[in-house]
Amino acid sequence: MDKIIVTALGFIGIIFTVWFFLMKKEKQVTVVDEVDITVNGGYSPEVISIPVGKITKINFLRTDPTDCLGEIVLGDFKIKKELPLNQKVTVEIKPEKAGEYVYSCGMNMYHGKIIVK
Amino acid sequence: MNTQTKTFPIQGMHCASCVRLIEKAVGKLDGVSACNVNLATNKASVSFDPQKVSDQKITLAVESVGYKIASGDQDKPKELDQLRKKVFVSLFLGSLIVVGGFLGMPFWMQLILATPVQFWAGWGFYQATIPALRHRTANMDTLVAIGTSVAFGYSAFVAIFPQVVKSIGIKPEPYFDVSTIIIGLILLGRFLEARAKAGTSEAIKKLIGMQAKTARVLRKAQDKWVEEDIPISDVVVGDVIRVRPGEKIPVDGVILEGESSIDESMVTGESMPVDKTKGDSVVGATINKTGTFTFKASKVGKDTLLSQIIKLVEEAQGSKAPIQRLADLISSYFVPVVIILAILTFVVWFVFGPSPAFLFAMLNSIAVLIIACPCAMGLATPTAIMVGTGIGAEHGILIKDAKSLETAHKIKTIIFDKTGTLTEGKPVVTDVKGDVLQLAASLEKGSEHSLAEAIIAKAEQEGLALSVVEGFKAIPGHGVEGVIDKKKVVLGNRKLMKKENISVDESQVEKLEEQGKTVMMLGVNGKLAGLIAVADTIKTSAKDAVKKLQDMGIEVVMITGDNQRTAEAIAGQAGIKKVYAEVLPQEKEEIVRKLQRSLPAGRQVAFVGDGINDAPALAQADVGIAMGSGTDVAIEAGDITLINSDLRSVAAAIDLSKKTMRTIKLNLFWAFGYNIILIPVAMGVLYPFWGILLNPIFASAAMALSSISVVSNSLLLKRYKI
User: Fold this and answer.
1) How far is residue B605's CA from residue B413's CA, in Å, rounded to a whole number?
2) Looking at the predicted structure, is the pLDDT value of residue B41 above 90?
3) Which of A99, A97, A98, A101 is nearest to A79 (CA)?
4) What whole-number distance in Å separates Cα of residue B321 and Cα of residue B660?
5) What's the Cα-to-Cα distance from B89 to each of A12, B27, B122, B235, rounded to whole Å?
6) Taking a C-beta distance cutoff of 8 angstroms, is the pair B573, B546 a contact?
7) CB neighbours of residue A47 within 10 Å
8) What pLDDT is recorded for position B16?
9) N- to C-terminal Cα distance for chain B?
10) What is the DSSP secondary structure assignment for residue B538, as one 8-state letter?
11) What is the pLDDT of residues B580-625, one digit of tens each?
12) Does the beta carbon of A38 lie under 8 angstroms from any beta carbon of chain B?
């Protein structure tokens, strides 16, 4: 009996893990000129939409002491910056092409997305 | 007045005058009552009224004199120190528990020893996990937090309710050793990794540190020239600056007076000092060796060569290599997949495993969570790119982005532009046949062609007075024409002569061309008046560079606007067998395209040019390599820019790319291989065959080692000699 319960709980656990981590809906925030992104256990807002061919300012504010989040890498825009704790760090980007650009922490564990339209 | 005293860590100080500069700059702020700067500790102690002065104002004042408040980095040593303490405490308490376990230490005592490790030393794992879960995301900390919490939670239950555990048929035995040693070892891995990672960004710190802090500027005050030491940030274009022996040249400029020998190795990578005199350009951050001179600042602030190099290297280090894509894709699914595997492991061991099934299931699923190391995959490419681009910059090889660095190792054909790249680009007149020099020089006065300079120089040398030219016209790829003393004068190559219906004595021309000279013909009123031969010397490094490239299995091609015979003679001197001659500037791009089409997929074509005249060909090539020396270089023009004129740097750049790619591939192989092999081992796949299981403590040791090994392997690149 206990084996059946553990198997059932395991199955539920797997379904929950898939749903929780891999099936989340990304809320998209449309940005005009400037956006503040809080870095705390990830990036809030996680997905931003910005216009093509225009300069957009992204202000990162890291409030999470996790070392992993101490660096931000926007590889497609050749930007890598240290994010000191509780200090606003601004990056400016001017995307020339529409598309989706993923950015991450220095170790590529936390991800955010920039959608250029 | 409400006064507060605060300490600011300062970056970039190196002498007592730095101390004075900062004290003066901060001290004059309204609201600052005292500022004491300590050179030994690199700190400034500032007493100020927070109502009047903010931290930001103080930071700006420090920055205005060329220094930095080490804002983000100031916490780094503190963090490392704290980490070291945590490592020591957790491993010490963990060892006590391990030894105590053998000696029969009571469970409650083990619980007391393990609790601070779990919730003090290991607090960071929870701190990272909780907000991450709020974002429905997970990372390595999540895995460690879950793994150690399960071990600690079960052990605490055993310690508090041993009878309950016994009643369900399991021997009451806590696993505090697992939870504590795992935390200790993973923190130890992080500590070592953080220290090693700092080494990967050394190059950029070195470049920033090269900048001079002050400049001795000559300024006019009451009709007198006075020398004044000012912060480098206050230097403006046009300032006249004096540099004495042993001093750093503060900004880029042109020498007005004096001469000296200058060590430019820090910027160009060339080890020999360069002699400079009036009219020569000097580069900021290079060192004046012998003489005293004054120069006029031409580029300051972010426009100096050094600032541009720093910007380029920073950008390259922030860029992503295409090879990283697979690692990116995998790491976005990695942690959830590992959690799923851990659940599966638990279920399979619980259902099919030997007795005590619960303990086997628990320990094996903890091992799966702990051994998985996504960090090694994340670090594999960027750390190698950082070290590779850094080494390049130290030797005058600037790589624009990670993609260029990756592409360069696949180069199979390399095209050299002749003038200014393979040759010095300073042609001199060698032969004049007929009385044509005065006419030619008069005509060329209006031209910007490099050959024109040679003819004018020769005329000046012979003291010839130049005539007035009317109706001057440059015909690209042909030559020039104009009217002098009512006579139509044309000067150019065969094509121009043919166009003008002027017959040429071919035997004389061919003889000169076979010597590698460029021959220009001068026609007056439709008749040939004479010839001028100009020769450009081949760079001393050309032959060696070409041989090195050929030894690497790369086909070397030369491209030039010169006629076939001259081109072949120059190519022969350099050891180049394939030549494209008589190519018009706009046709160079087409030849690059043609060569690209002729090569099988994956084999790349590089173009080496001066970056000014060859922009379309550089852009069309898979890797555009721009060459120049010092301030003359068009730094943004190529995928790779060589700031020295040594052609061997081309082979060095390709070799650096090969070495970096080898490091990246080894890192990725190790990072992927590690996870692919050890996760199944931790799941217990070897148990049915050989009875092998992975203790979670060994899993944590392997995990800690995997990241360190990747970073250390990248650091090994530093040993590469260019």
Assistant:
1) 5
2) no
3) A101
4) 11
5) 38, 44, 11, 52
6) no
7) 17
8) 62
9) 60
10) B
11) 998 887 788 899 999 999 888 778 999 998 766 688 888 899 999 9
12) no
Contact residues on chain B for A21, CB-CB shorter than 8 A: 136-138, 335-336, 339
Which positions of B are annotated as active-site residues?
Answer: 417
Using a CB-CB cut-off of 8 Å, the residues of chain B touching A102 are: 328
Report in angstroms the alpha-carbon separations of B429 from B299, B420, B446, B453, B534: 34, 16, 18, 10, 4
Q: Is B258 left (phi over 0), alpha (psi -120 to 50) or beta?
A: left
User: Which structure tokens are listed for A80?
Assistant: 């890598």
Percent of chain B with pLDDT over 90: 35
Query: CA B372, CA B140: separation in Å to the nearest integer?
Result: 8
- The Cα B592–Cα B559 span in angstroms is 10
- Closest by alpha carbon to B618, among B607, B603, B633? B607
Enumerate residues 6+ apart whose C-beta is below 8 A from B62: B8, B10, B22, B25, B26, B44, B68, B69
In chain A, how long is the greatest CA-to-CA distance? 63
User: Is B135–A109 a contact, with Cβ atoms under 8 angstroms apart?
Assistant: no
Q: What are phi and psi of B55, to 5 degrees?
A: -55, -40
Mutating which of B340, B348, B398 best tests the A interface, going by the most A Cβ atoms within 10 A? Answer: B340
Mean pLDDT for all residues in chain B: 86
For B58-109, write each residue's pLDDT tens digit.
888 887 776 777 655 556 677 788 889 999 999 999 999 999 988 989 999 9
In chain B, what residues touch A79 (CB-CB under 8 Å)? Answer: 315, 318
- Burial group, residue B177, by CB count within 10 angstroms (0-12, 13-18, 19+): buried
pLDDT at B634: 63
Q: Are B343 and B365 in contact (CB under 8 A)?
A: yes
Distance CA B703, CA B195 (A): 17
CB nearest B72 (choices: A84, A102, A110): A84
Residue B344 has its nearest CB partner, among A10, A18, A75, at A10
Question: Residue A38 belongs to what H/E stretch?
Answer: strand A34-39
More confident residue, B629 or B416: B416
Q: Going by DSSP bridges, is the β-strand pair B411-417/B555-559 parallel, antiparallel, or unpaired? A: parallel
Residues 6+ apart with CB under 8 A from B277: B255, B258, B259
pLDDT at B74: 53
Q: Can the peptide bond before residue B356 be classed as cis, meaning omega within 30 degrees of 0?
A: yes
Using alpha carbons, select from B281, B348, B260, B264 the residue that is nearest to residue B680. Answer: B348
pTM of the model: 0.78
Return the SS3 of B88. Answer: helix
Residue pLDDT tens, chain A, 117 long: 888 999 999 999 999 999 998 888 878 899 988 999 999 888 999 999 999 999 999 999 998 888 778 889 998 888 988 888 888 889 999 999 999 998 998 878 888 999 998
Chain A interface test: which of B126, B135, B344, B667 (most A C-beta within 10 Å): B135
Minimal C-alpha gap between B358 and chain A (Å):
10
Q: Kindly determine whether residue A109 and residue B375, on different chains, have CB atoms separated by under 8 Å.
A: yes
A chain contacts of residue B346, beta-carbon cutoff 8 Å: 6, 10
How far apart are alpha carbons B114 and B551 in whole angstroms? 62
3-state class (DSSP) for residue A63: coil
Rounded CA-CA distance B430/B461 in Å is 13
Residues 49-78 of A with CB under 8 A from B: 64-68, 70, 73-78
B79–A6 C-beta distance less than 8 A: no
DSSP string, A74-114: EGGGTEEEE--BT-EEEEEE--SS-EEEEEEETTS-SEEEE
Cβ-contact B183, B90 below 8 angstroms: yes
Determine whether the interchain pair A66/B133 forms a contact, defined as Cβ–Cβ distance below 8 Å. Answer: no
Tell which of B143, B200, B314, B350 to mutate to test the A interface (max A CBs under 10 Å): B350
pLDDT at B630: 52
